Amino acid sequence: MHMLPTPGELSPIRTMAGGSVANTIRGLAAGFGISCNIVGACGDDEQGQMFLTNMKMSGVNLPQLRIKRGPTGQCVCLVDAEGNRTMRPCLSDAVRLQATELSRDDFRGSQWVVLNGYGFYGEKLVERAVSLAKQDGACISMDLASFEVVRNFRSQLLGLLESGKVDLCFANEDEARELMSGEPNADAESALEFLANYCRWAVVMLGPKGCIARHGKEIARVPAIEGAEVIDTTGAGDLFASGFLYGMIKGLPLADCCRMGCCSGGAVVRALGGEVSPENWQWAYKQMQVIGLPPPNFAQGSIRDSTN
């Protein structure tokens, strides 16, 4: 992470474990107490060890994580003073998980399998993961990742959506516009309707405007949480997905799933990087209480302690 400085200031640089799906899984485990495994690969280098250590400390289970000889993928995030960020990944020689390495054992017993559009860079990786997970009865959550992914892998993405195997799909406004490019209406509402034609649940995240979501004929429009000072938007969508999925797992109504997502997404933007600090999880739990949502059971005591 590299915060772009204002004139006369030093630029803070922070190195941390991340990745879109990893951010979501870490949020579910550390912030919501959900048992999570990560399926993937990392290198046997310093960055790979950092990733392993961070995921373990966050409570993520790692038996399906392959450690390979070679470098771990990295990404430079440039963040300006308003919290806007640009990401430049370096994956050219990084170790990768191959589709042929996956088996049903990787997904056995899973209620949800969380995937991301970046997986399309691995040949047939997403398709193989979806097929195996569905064989074991899991639901599929898919994040469109970036407008570049939607543009570069449009045919693969549309084929996957049209298969009806994606149960829940997340998109942000940029991805929504790219998805609907060439259509008369290329806005968030149109993208939501399009995704809902193929997925049981569809969500378009609107940044500071909150989100819109649809399940069948039900539509929820939820504003962002007030008071979330924006330092860095890295991981906002990933952590929104953590909260939304937690709501789904707990059987909450659609609007409350959105509110959960807004709480956890609002927590991560309050600091540099895509990981929520313990202090910012406390902030998120307090916001849940304020808007009438039940915080995770394990957090109840810590919320009371922090208010004393």
Feature tags:
alpha/beta, three-stranded mixed sheet, 11 helices, 11 strands, globular
Care to describe what's here?
The protein is an alpha/beta fold. The protein contains 11 helices and 11 strands. The strands form 3 sheets. The protein has a 6-stranded mixed β-sheet, sandwiched between helices. A 3-stranded mixed β-sheet has the order 1-4-5, with no helix packed on it. Helix 1 (20-32) crosses helix 8 and helix 9 (254-268) packs antiparallel against helix 10 (278-290). It is globular and about 50 Å long. The two termini are 34 Å apart. The model has no long low-confidence stretch (mean pLDDT 92).
Pairing-aware structural class of the strands and helices? alpha/beta
Number of strands: 11
Shape descriptor: globular
Biggest sheet statistics = 6 strands, mixed
Total helical segments? 11
Task: Give the strand line-up of the largest sheet.
Answer: 6-7-8-9-10-11
Low-confidence stretches: none
Mean pLDDT: 92
- Beta-strand percentage? 15-25%
Helix content class: 25-40%
Straight-line distance between termini: 34 Å
Radius of gyration: 19 Å
Element pattern in H and E: EHEHEEEEHEHHEHHEEEHHHH
Topology:
Blueprint: E1 2-3, H1 20-32, E2 40-43, H2 46-57, E3 65-68, E4 74-79, E5 85-90, E6 112-116, H3 125-135, E7 139-143, H4 147-152, H5 154-162, E8 168-172, H6 173-179, H7 188-196, E9 201-205, E10 211-215, E11 218-222, H8 236-249, H9 254-268, H10 278-290, H11 300-307
